[in-house]
Specification:
single chain, alpha+beta
Length: 647
């Protein structure tokens, strides 16, 4: 109510902030865990029900492989009668965080400065005082660790039991792992946290730069939400390099973690958030690391947005034209730098590279499967013609955006006994995950040919809304309420994941998507009753590499094979279903066969072969072969390419 009172609040908040920054890691973790526990604890007691724990798991970035695995974990921490006290909750958290046994295996090698003790039990003594001191001196290279008193004080911070805080302390496995992943074991030397402006005049490449990976994500890399707030948080914490994963969206670029279930946000919204918060904490330059997946047309949109939003902040010209090294952070103050691959050639323009004596241009090749001419970038060099894969189409067909929902995990297509099946799926999913309001799926309407139904969980039961369609000026639109139209079902769902659906009786934002149990059954490239020989016969009729189908292997319920053409031959790769995932080769996991196909449409499956042409019954009818093709059969299954670790 007065400036004096406001000043007291500011002083108090600053003291709390300083106290939090100075607090040791175990205190911070305990405080955070109590906050999470009380946020879902309906009875306000110092305990949690298993149902309340399940609702917390997504906030802890943890998804139990199965109900059985979760039950085993709870038994491990001594849970009885489906309730956990705080101590058990804390132990459960440690089990989740440190269940990777390969970390512990490193401390069983002879080369280690000490041999870890009993690691079979988390509460067993594993690291003695003098062992820990040797570890700090010889492995971590900490000179202060020569002072045994200092080492003893550090150990007592991480020891849970007051009775074990003696002159000769010992770490349990859990406590030792807590130390390894704590800020007290950070590789960063805090004396460098304060920036000296006199030292900021060297070339930019001479500095460590605080950087962020997958900046847009608020949680894990598979199912979490993307948010502009994540950029705001990073920039205000002093981060100077943020990442933008840019993908083709409905009419404009979007940002999300490609080929996952993370939500999508508009590219332009992210750029505006960066512009507003880039230099609040510091004037030193911001680097935007662009991971580009957009076609040329949407890249042009990105360039226009960068120029319009950033204006003079955007670094578009060299700071010094004759410079022999990068400019310094001081020279780049207040500037935003784009880190992006340059395009090799402008589409459609033929140029001559006089330095190499090469001609560059376009080559058009007839595609007998799609029955159209495809344009390829080509180069003539040393009397040879080299050409790349065809260009992405720059002219956009607005109808393709109306089908974006078809590859989303929340879309279930036309369901047998639609309403009843939708309710059963949502009930089962909510029983498994804790039943968050807004858990949803979308299916085709049982009654209306061009409409859809949104089914969602609210207040312990499933409700349904009709997604209606209409047409205006030759364009189809979709809506839940007559005053708000969307060009596609996909954009409608994205809107209500970010903004609440307002009805007369309630407001609700869509949250968790209920995945389709077997989405491949809706796909024309999947065959549930096709032999290996029949599959090869189908592929022989399609005269192009990249033709493919997936079939269920004969007599094996959880085993599939992808049959495709590559290098002019018919090849096969095994796909094994293991629990809820599909395993290709020995290490590559996908949550569905649809996800697998979509991934290898973008990435090579075998050598340089991508999945290009789905072999549907209609396509097989169009083609026949008159030649003896027995030479292109493959007797054995081939191994797929090793997948990128980021998946």
């Amino acid at each position: 109510d007065s400036p004096e009172e406001a000043q007291k609040w500011l002083i108090g908040l600053e003291l709390l902030r300083e106290e939090t920054l100075a607090a040791p890691t175990p205190v911070l973790i305990e405080s955070w865990l109590r906050k999470q526990m009380y946020s879902v604890n309906q009875t306000k007691t110092n305990s949690l029900s298993v149902k309340e724990l399940k609702s917390l798991l997504p906030m802890l970035n943890y998804k139990a492989p199965s109900s059985r695995a979760l039950k085993d974990r709870l038994q491990e921490v001594g849970v009885k009668k489906d309730r956990l006290d705080f101590e058990q909750f804390h132990k459960f958290y440690n089990l989740m965080m440190f269940e990777q046994n390969e970390i512990l295996d490193e401390f069983k090698r002879e080369a280690c400065s000490f041999i870890l003790g009993n690691t079979d039990k988390q509460d067993a003594s594993a690291v003695l005082l003098h062992d820990f001191q040797r570890f700090l001196i010889y492995d971590q290279k900490e000179p202060w660790a020569n002072d045994l008193t200092h080492v003893r004080e550090l150990m007592t911070i991480f020891i849970d039991d007051t009775m074990r805080k003696t002159n000769d302390p010992e770490f349990t496995v859990s406590e030792f792992l807590s130390f390894l992943f704590s800020k007290e074991n950070s590789v960063w030397d805090e004396k460098f946290s304060e920036i000296n402006n006199l030292d900021m005049n060297n070339p930019l490449s001479h500095y460590w730069i605080s950087s962020s990976h997958n900046t847009y994500l608020t949680g894990d890399q598979i199912r979490s939400e993307s948010s502009t707030e994540a950029y705001v948080r990073c920039l205000r914490l002093g981060c100077r390099c943020v990442e933008l994963d840019c993908w083709e969206g409905p009419g404009e670029p979007i940002i999300y973690h490609g080929w996952t279930r993370t939500t999508k946000i508009k590219f332009e919204d992210v750029v505006k958030a960066i512009n507003e918060h880039a230099f609040v904490t510091t004037d030193f330059p911001v680097i935007l690391s662009i991971e580009e997946h957009c076609p040329i047309e949407q890249q042009r949109q990105m360039a226009r947005i960068f120029k319009e939003v950033f204006g003079d902040k955007l670094l578009s010209e060299p700071v010094e034209h004759m410079a022999e090294q990068l400019p310094s952070p001081t020279q780049l103050k207040g500037k935003i730098i784009l880190k992006h691959k340059k395009l090799n050639v402008e589409g459609g323009v033929t140029t001559r590279d006089f330095r190499r004596g090469q001609k560059q241009g376009d080559l058009e090749i007839w595609d007998p499967v799609d029955q159209r001419w495809n344009r390829h970038y080509c180069v003539i060099s040393d009397d040879k013609l080299y050409y790349a894969e065809e260009y992405e189409e720059e002219e956009e067909d607005p109808r393709k955006y109306q089908e974006l929902h078809c590859v989303e995990p929340w879309f279930h297509g036309r369901m047998k006994e639609g309403r009843l099946m939708a309710e059963q799926l949502i009930h089962d999913y909510c029983a498994e995950t804790g039943g968050q309001d807004g858990t949803f799926l979308v299916r085709q309407s049982d009654r209306y040919v061009h409409d859809f139904t949104l089914s969602f969980w609210r207040s312990g039961r499933v409700q349904h809304c009709r997604i209606r369609s209409g047409s205006e000026g030759g364009h189809t639109y979709f809506f839940l309420t007559s005053n708000l139209h969307f060009p596609s079902v996909f954009s409608l769902i994205q809107h209500y994941r970010e903004n609440p659906l307002r009805c007369q009786d309630f407001e609700l934002r869509l949250t968790e998507a209920v995945p389709s149990p077997d989405p491949h059954l809706q796909e024309r490239w999947f065959y549930s009753n096709l032999s290996r020989g029949q599959a090869e016969d189908y592929l022989l009729r399609i005269p192009r590499d990249g033709a493919f189908l997936i079939r269920q292997r004969e007599g094996e319920l959880d085993s599939y094979a992808i049959t495709f053409r590559g290098d002019g031959k018919v090849k096969h790769c095994r796909i094994q279903k293991d629990g809820n995932v599909y395993l290709l080769g020995t290490t590559t996991e996908f949550e569905s066969l649809v996800e697998l196909v979509n991934y290898f449409k973008k990435k090579p499956l075998y050598r340089k072969i991508k999945l290009r042409y789905p072999v549907t019954p209609e396509l097989v009818e169009r083609f026949s072969t008159n030649e003896n093709c027995s030479s292109i059969y493959m007797e054995t299954y081939v191994k797929p390419n090793e997948i990128e670790p980021s998946l």
